[in-house]
Write a structure and sequence with these properties.
single chain, alpha+beta, four-stranded mixed β-sheet, four-stranded antiparallel β-sheet, 10 strands, binds flavin-adenine dinucleotide
Length: 383
């Protein structure tokens, strides 16, 4: 066992850091406060080979490992926290599920614009009555000739306000076994955006409504019985969520560290007060411990998918560490940390959302408990 990065991993991280310092440093603050997707960043990243890191070369990707993609998030977020979302969208999100399970037709048609940074894909799972209990989803696909008619709606979908393609979880039949997924294009008749909203992070999202949208058979990603595979693919998204939580916590930590060395009160640098030194020691411990779990999950996955248990532990640790460290970093920086002139308050707002998105911290704990006791714990009343 070796806890150091391999020389080629270190080299890759250094090169992404160098790229980020050159291309993303200017405008990092403005980008964080812009609700729109940073398309200019996406195109630069595509050129740099940072989209599709884990996607096979045959499909237009780089053929790298999940760990490489995690390192890319870390290096980008260290310079521009908001731009880490582009690494997420181009590597960890539904793009990876599409690359993993998509047909040759689906991959040939949709991967190229996504990998070129010209389009983005969303995953629509959550519905008004199906949040944590995602298998309660009601969006229905009904057979119609050589395809399906899809009816239903989705909420809270990241990128939904401007995504070109939606990977939507739908119900082909009853029960968990009846769930699968389809690819929906925004311009399909019957597909409409509803009320627009914003998360606390500033990101825009819009309700998605499907009114009798026709989906030909070749646009079904995983048919009836596909739910388990779908969630296995979703664990990659969770690793990206975890990596961003940790990276934004670390960004806030570094800002607070520099501030504590610079800022003087009572005639001394803040770093000289033991009360703050211990806060920094606690922050460091949380970041380092979470990082080990994140690296374990990513390294164990290699070129494949991370295990549910590794993923749940990594996401829980990183979500908690990111939020708590960002909050402590803000406290160390006083009113400056609380101000929108620095990115620390942004890191706190983003990390707060990741404790809910992609499986809340409570749902992750439920999953971890199942591993501990080697049994399932049905959450439904009366079961
Ligand atoms: C920033 C952000 C981005 C998102 N992006 C997407 C996206 O791209 N696509 C998408 O489909 N969805 C997305 N979501 C939605 C997200 O998946 C849901 O918010 C999440 O699954 C929780 O559902 P809910 O908000 O309806 O909360 P609820 O399920 O109503 O839960 C409310 C609270 O109860 C807790 N709880 C629920 N059940 C249990 C239980 N059995 N045991 C213990 N506690 C429980 C939850 O943890 C939570 O704290 C996003 C959400 C956020 C915040």
């Amino acid at each position: 066992m070796d806890f150091r990065l391999a020389p080629e991993q270190q080299q890759f991280r250094d090169s992404v850091l160098k790229f980020s310092q050159k291309e993303l440093s200017a405008g990092a603050l403005a980008r964080a406060h812009d609700p729109k997707y940073p398309w200019d960043v996406a195109k630069k990243m595509a050129k740099q080979g940072l989209l599709g890191i884990t996607i096979a070369e045959a499909d237009g990707g780089q053929g790298g490992t999940l760990m490489d993609a995690v390192l890319a998030i870390e290096a980008v977020a260290a310079v521009c926290p908001r731009s880490a979302d582009v690494i997420q969208a181009g590597n960890f999100g539904p793009i990876r599920v599409l690359a993993e399970y998509g047909s040759a037709f689906q991959k040939q048609t949709f991967l190229k614009p996504l990998l070129n940074g010209e389009a983005v894909i969303s995953v629509g799972m959550t519905e008004p009555e199906a949040g944590s209990a995602v298998t309660d989803l009601a969006t229905k696909a009904t057979r119609d000739g050589k395809g399906w008619r899809v009816n239903g709606s989705k909420i809270f979908t990241t990128h939904s306000a401007y995504a070109d393609l939606i990977l939507a979880y739908v119900r082909f039949g009853p029960g968990v076994g009846g769930i699968g997924s389809v690819l929906l294009q925004k311009d399909s008749p019957g597909f409409r955006l509803g009320k627009k909203s914003k998360f606390m992070s500033g990101e825009e999202w819009a309700e998605l409504h499907f009114d009798n949208v026709f989906v030909p058979d070749e646009m079904v990603l995983l048919g009836e019985g596909g739910f388990k595979k779908q969630i296995a693919g979703f664990n990659v998204e969770r690793i990206g969520n975890a990596a961003r939580s940790l990276a934004l916590g670390r960004y806030a930590f570094e800002q607070a560290r520099a501030w504590a060395l610079e800022r003087k009160q009572f005639g001394r640098a803040l770093a000289e007060f033991q009360g703050l030194q211990w806060k920094f020691a606690d922050m460091k411990l949380k970041l380092e411990a979470a990082q080990l779990l994140l690296y374990k999950a990513a390294a164990n996955a290699d070129r494949g998918l991370p295990t549910p248990e590794d993923t749940a532990l990594a996401k829980l640790a990183c979500n908690q560490a990111g939020f708590e460290v960002a909050s402590d970093a803000l406290q160390v920086m006083g009113a400056t940390g609380y101000s929108q002139d620095v990115l620390v308050e942004y890191c706190l707002r983003r990390c707060r959302g990741w404790m809910i998105a992609g499986g809340s911290v409570e749902i992750l704990k439920n999953r971890i408990a199942e591993s501990i006791f080697e049994r399932t714990f049905p959450q439904r009343g009366g079961s």
